[in-house]
Amino acid sequence: MFISVRDDVLRLAGYGSIAEGLKDLNLDIVEVEFFRDYTVWDTTGWKRVAFTAADAAQKIRQAYGKTGICAFLLHNNFNCAEPQKEIQWVVDVIKAADALKIPAIRIDAITKGEREEPFDVRVSRFVDSMRQALAATAGSAVSLGIENHGVQGNDPAFLEQVIARVGDRRLGVNMDTGNFYWNGFPLDEVYAILRRVAPHTKHTHVKNIRYPEETRRQKRASGWEYGKYVSPIYEGDIDHRQVIAILSKAGYKGPLTIEDECLGRLDANGKKDVLRKDAAYLKSLLA
C-alpha cells in the first residue's frame, strides 16, 4: 500500500496547484476527478483541461506528465434524466483509464431517490448500469469501486447485492474508511463491516471522525453532527492501523487516498498543517 490524495482536497487546502500540494506533502500520486463535461484539473493551477472521449488519454497524459494518477473519481447518478448518457460517460472514463494504465475508478453509489425507492429497484438499476459499463469495456484491466457514500452506499447489503448480482471480478468497493461511521454504525460494527467489504476493495478514501466517547458504541442517525466532530485522520476514533491490517489481510495493495473533510473548520495554515500530519501519520502506519 502507499499514500495518495484527492485533487479536490489539495484545492480546498489552498494549494496553488496539484503539483504544489504533492510536493508539500511529499507525495507523488493523486486521485483525479473526471468531470461530466470531459475535463480534469490541470497540475499547475486550478484551471480545467478539456478534451473529448477520443483524445482524453492524450490530453490528460500531456497535462499530467510524470505526475501519477491512482484513480479517476466520478460523481455519477444512474437515476438521472439520461441514464444511457451517464453509462456512456463511465465507459469513456474506463477507456481513458485503460489507455493511461490507471487501475481504478471510483463509482458513486448515490442515486436520485435513494431514500424513497424500494431496495430491489435501486439494486436492479445499479446492477444493470454496471453490467452495461463492464460489457462495453470487456478485456479492460480497470476496476470499478462503488464507494460507500451516502445512505444507499453505506448499506452493506446494497453493496454486496450489486457486486454479487453483477458477478464480475472488476467490480468491487471504493472503501471509505470513515463513511460507515458517519452513517451511524457503532464503532465495533464499523470494523466488522470493513472486514466484509475488504475482499472486494479496489480503491480507498481515508477520513476520520471523533465522536464523544459515550456515543461511539451507540447507533446514531446518519450524518449525526458530522460537521462538528469530523476530525483529522490521525485524531479520530477509527484506528487506521487496524483498518490497514484488515486491508492487508484481504490482499489489498492499492493507495490509501487522503480525503480529510475537517479542513473547512481551519484557517489556511491549519489546513496544510493537518494534511502534512495526515500524510506523515499514514506513512508511519505503513512503515
Put simply, the count of helices is 12
How much of the polypeptide forms β-strand, as a percent range? 15-25%
Helix content: 40-55%
Question: Runs with pLDDT <50, length 5+?
Answer: none
Calculate the terminal CA-CA distance, rounded to whole Å. Answer: 10 Å
Q: Indicate the radius of gyration in whole angstroms.
A: 18 Å
The description of the largest β-sheet is: 8 strands, parallel
Q: What number is the mean pLDDT?
A: 97
Total beta strand runs? 12
The strands making up the biggest β-sheet line up spatially as 9-8-7-6-5-2-1-12
N-to-C order of helices and strands: EHHEEEHEHEHEHHEHHEEHEHEH
Overall geometry comes to globular
Give the oligomer, counting copies of the same chain as homo and different chains as hetero. Answer: single chain
Q: SS-based structural class?
A: alpha/beta
Task: Write up what this structure looks like.
This protein is an alpha/beta fold and 287 residues long. The protein is 42% helix and 17% strand. It is built from twelve helices and twelve strands. It has helices at residues 7-12, 18-25, 56-64, 83-100, 119-135, 150-153, 156-166, 179-182, 187-197, 226-229, 240-249, 268-286; strands at residues 2-6, 29-33, 39-41, 48-50, 68-73, 104-107, 143-147, 171-176, 201-205, 208-209, 230-231, 255-258. Strands 9-8-7-6-5-2-1-12 form an eight-stranded parallel beta sheet. A two-stranded antiparallel sheet has the order 3-4. It has a two-stranded antiparallel sheet with strand order 10-11. A hairpin with a 6-residue loop joins strand 3 and strand 4 (48-50). Helix 3 packs across helix 4 (83-100) and helix 4 crosses helix 5 (119-135). The longest helix has 19 residues, at 268-286. The chain is globular, with a radius of gyration of 18 Å. The model has no long low-confidence stretch (mean pLDDT 97).
